[in-house]
Write a structure and sequence with these properties.
The protein is α/β, with parallel strands linked by helices. The protein is built from 7 helices and 12 strands. About 30% of the residues lie in helices and about 20% in strands. The two termini are about 30 Å apart.
């Protein structure tokens, strides 16, 4: 994972989820919103360097703190148990996390005057899972997803919105071929599912583990720059 930056913007608590403005100079006049969603047990500081590299004059970047406290400066959208060898998650917490995230998307768009439908979700690990979930079940609320080292929940795939609605969402996926937390077959699984909906996502694999690599971040920057 990219190390946290030494300069920390203040934690803001005026919306449904706490967050930090990565580029406050764009708080007026931005044309789209990019929300950064960290992994389980991490926090919003982890993705600040990612946001700093993706921020531009048209994009307001918010690094979001997940709602559940899991330890000292450790947060998550839901609890997950890996003891069986496969991730087993708390579905009620996940649904509540989705509700809070959707609220945040609406509130931040209104507060910062972002045009309707111009919200991008960038997630790492559990954050990518949440981004996928919103895109598949509430596609009208999101314009694009950047999923790093994540997976799609079976529940998201089973209860997805009509394919015609999901097709308006742009997808960027990145996964390390040697990821030992969420193996790279989860990326293949997500790509295969999206293709059943008539969607071909941009996929940037890399020789690495459970992380946001420099090469994948550069690919994400190029991809985002091409989005309207």
């Amino acid at each position: 994972m990219t190390p946290a930056t030494t300069t920390q913007p203040p934690l803001l608590t005026d919306l449904s989820l706490s967050y930090r403005l990565v580029n406050p100079a764009q708080a007026t006049g931005a044309k789209r919103l990019l929300l950064l969603l960290h992994g389980v047990g991490g926090n919003e500081l982890n993705l600040l360097p990612v946001g700093e590299q993706l921020a531009d004059a048209h994009t307001l970047v918010l690094s979001v703190r997940a709602p559940l406290v899991l330890g000292p400066m450790g947060f998550g959208f839901y609890q997950v148990d890996f003891s069986s060898g496969k991730p087993v998650f708390n579905h009620a917490q996940q649904l509540d996390g989705q509700r809070l995230l959707l609220n945040l998307m609406h509130e931040a768009s209104a507060k910062y005057n972002i045009p309707t439908g111009q919200v991008y979700l960038l997630g790492f690990s559990q954050g990518a899972i949440m981004a996928y979930d919103v895109a598949l079940t509430r596609p009208s609320q999101v314009r694009g997803v950047l999923a790093f080292s994540g997976r799609m929940l079976a529940e998201s795939r089973q209860h997805h919105a009509p394919a015609a609605d999901i097709k308006r969402v742009q997808f960027f996926l990145s996964h390390g071929r040697h990821d030992d937390k969420l193996p790279a077959f989860y990326a293949d699984e997500a790509i295969d599912f999206l293709k059943t909906l008539g969607i071909t996502p941009h996929y940037a694999a890399f020789e690495g583990g459970h992380e946001v690599s420099a090469s994948s971040l550069a690919a994400a920057h190029q991809w985002l720059a091409k989005q309207p």
